[in-house]
Specification:
The protein is an alpha+beta fold and 276 residues long. The protein has 2 domains: 147 residues, no CATH class; 117 residues, Immunoglobulin-like (Sandwich). Helix content is 36%, strand content 19%. It has 8 helices and 8 strands; from the N terminus they run H-H-H-H-H-H-H-H-E-E-E-E-E-E-E-E. The strands form 2 sheets. It has a 4-stranded antiparallel β-sheet with strand order 1-2-3-6, with helices on one face. A hairpin with a 4-residue loop joins strand 2 and strand 3. Helix 1 crosses helix 2, helix 1 packs parallel to helix 6 and helix 4 packs antiparallel against helix 6. It is elongated and about 70 Å long. 24% of the residues are buried.
Length: 276
């Protein structure tokens, strides 16, 4: 078994998808080549990262059965590949940033020999087939049907996550104001979650040397809560830094880029919303 085949089996091991024979071959190869354990760690970390993004969902039994029936129909790839096939696998392997080790022959009996136990029958899946299988199993068994994609989960802005948490809270509240120039500003808050979010629509753009700054006004004292800049359409969803408390006012001022230099507003609020 070469290192590429072992990396393929490591992915299957992390997904608990190996047959008994392949699992034995995997363990034998790992025992003989302990430096290959990096593939095991990488595969385990990848599966853990994916599974942590959403709650597990048990798929319908019929879909599970159909998936594994399809896998069993896949022809097994011989461990002997054509030159063209080897080049194709090498290219796929390099695209992952994982380079198979180059094994140099050493004198017989040398401690530097790399142990390469023979793979069991049917254990050489081929890299492309493993990624198809892994993606299918993860998509069906981990993400579930109708779940958002992993990419969406990982790239969602913190402000959108906070807004969703507020809206799902039992004490969620909001208030909206429309400014004379047509700008619409809505504050969302929840004392139970301690979070608050400001959503703007058609907010005027500021020069590069200025920014909008958020404030809690608590018992007459302004508390800096972060800065934000609307997009080209004047839209923004900005979470206020710090703990929201019942009765806070939410204010927006125009400040120098980066925020007020002394931690206090340098201008009158352009937006002031009561949450009481």
């Amino acid at each position: 078994m070469n290192e590429r085949d072992f990396a393929d089996l490591a992915a299957g091991h992390a997904l608990n998808a190996l047959s008994d024979a392949d699992e034995r071959a995997f363990q034998e190869a790992l025992a003989g080549n302990p430096l290959w354990d990096r593939h095991v760690r990488d595969a385990s970390d990848a599966v853990a990262a994916i599974s942590d993004t959403v709650d597990p969902v048990e798929p319908p039994a019929a879909v599970r059965a159909a998936l594994f029936a399809r896998i069993s129909e896949l022809p097994q790839q011989s461990t002997t590949a054509t030159d063209e096939g080897d080049a194709f696998d090498d290219e796929d392997y390099a695209a992952l940033g994982v380079a198979p080790a180059t094994v140099q022959n050493s004198p017989q009996g040398s401690d530097s020999d790399v142990v390469a136990p023979a793979a069991s029958a049917g254990s050489s899946w081929g890299l492309r087939r493993w990624f198809t299988l892994a993606a299918s199993i993860v998509a069906v068994l981990v993400l579930g049907f109708g779940a958002v994609t992993v990419g969406q989960q990982l790239t969602r802005p913190a402000s959108l996550i906070a807004l969703e948490q507020i809206e799902n809270a039992p004490d969620a509240q909001s208030t909206t104001t429309t400014m004379p120039d047509g700008t619409t500003v809505t504050a969302h808050w929840s004392a139970a979650t301690g979070q608050s979010v400001l959503v703007t629509d058609d907010m005027p753009a500021l020069p590069a040397e200025q920014t909008y700054e958020l404030w809690f006004v608590r018992e007459g004292t302004p508390i800096a809560a972060g800065v934000f800049d609307p997009d080209a359409s004047g839209d923004a969803t900005a979470v206020l830094d710090g703990q929201y408390r019942s009765g806070d006012l939410i204010a927006v001022t125009v400040e120098p880029a980066g925020g007020s230099p002394d931690g206090t507003p340098s201008s009158d609020p352009v937006v002031l919303l009561a949450t009481a």
